[in-house]
Amino acid sequence: MQPKQLWSLLSRILSKLLGLPGILLKKFRKEGVTELDATALLELPQDVLMDIFGTLEVPDLIRAGSVCSSWYATYKCLLDLRQYKQPQTPCLFYTCESAGSNVGFLYSLKENRSYKLTLPEPPIRSRLLIGSSNGWLITADERSELHLVNPITGEQVALPSVITIEHVKPIFDASGTIHMYELSYETPPDLFDLGDLRDELYFKAFVFPDPSTTGSYIVVLIHEPYSRLSFARPGDDKWTWVGQGSMG
Ligand SMILES: *[C@@H]1O[C@H](CO)[C@@H](O)[C@H](O)[C@H]1NC(C)=O
């Protein structure tokens, strides 16, 4: 980090800490008071840093985490506990053909600038986005399988297979490979190519913090038929359908 960028970050953090407008800090800087403050800030204990970092927008939080090893440790700790500022100013997520299929961009409304992010396979441009919440994108790949992706950390979590959703059955070819899906709530059932089911099946997905386990979450899916709900927690081997036996 350049000294100028570090200064701008420190002044933003300092203004939060002291409850002063940034403009006053600029004045202090001219008068030579802030050098002292900045040194003191680097020596703050972790619990105080956690409180300050917890109020930052994500781009500033990441910058703060790259200042030194103790600030990085604080940053990691906040991420693990998911105690950073909620809600954040919204960002717009987009991809563009010229940047390549694994690249996404986050446009920060707050800063009026875009951040370029390289994301894990399968290519983000080939996925259907069916929701975003609590920092996660919920995506369906070209086999209609669901993944959570954190666009900032690059962390990715595979969700239970699409064939464990009520009413979805795999159709195998002669070699025993899944080559189509059957959606069985209608008679006769509809058949879909692997990549086409996602457009029909998924309406919307959300990620909620799981109150029973710190740092964990529940993914809730709204899907065919009749906007039914299913949910899954990390590590589940199947989707749980809400309201079995009460169709209609
Ligand atoms: C946002 O950035 C663009 C490009 O740097 C600039 O042209 C535009 O005026 C900025 N908009 C605002 C609201 O600051």
Lay out the secondary structure:
Blueprint: H1 3-18, H2 22-31, H3 34-42, H4 46-53, H5 58-65, H6 69-81, E1 91-94, E2 103-108, E3 113-118, E4 128-133, E5 136-140, E6 146-149, E7 156-158, E8 168-172, E9 178-183, E10 190-193, H7 197-201, E11 202-209, E12 217-223, E13 228-232, E14 240-241
Helix pairs in contact: 4-6, 5-6
The chain binds 2-acetamido-2-deoxy-beta-D-glucopyranose (NAG).
Observed structural traits:
four-stranded antiparallel beta sheet, 14 strands, 7 helices, 248 residues, binds 2-acetamido-2-deoxy-beta-D-glucopyranose, signal, 2 domains, elongated, alpha+beta
Explain how this protein is built.
With 248 residues, the protein is of the alpha+beta class. It has a four-stranded antiparallel β-sheet, with no helix packed on it. Strands 11-12-13-14 form a four-stranded antiparallel β-sheet. It has a three-stranded antiparallel β-sheet with strand order 1-2-3, with no helix packed on it. Strand 2 and strand 3 form a beta hairpin. The radius of gyration is 23 Å and the shape is elongated. The longest helix has 16 residues, at 3-18. Helix 4 crosses helix 6 (69-81) and helix 5 (58-65) packs across helix 6. It has two domains: 3-80, no CATH class; 128-241, no CATH class. The protein has helices at residues 3-18, 22-31, 34-42, 46-53, 58-65, 69-81, 197-201; strands at residues 91-94, 103-108, 113-118, 128-133, 136-140, 146-149, 156-158, 168-172, 178-183, 190-193, 202-209, 217-223, 228-232, 240-241. Keywords: Signal. This is F-box domain-containing protein. Residues 1-19 form the signal peptide. It comes from Zea mays (Maize). It holds the Pfam family Beta-prop_KIB1-4.
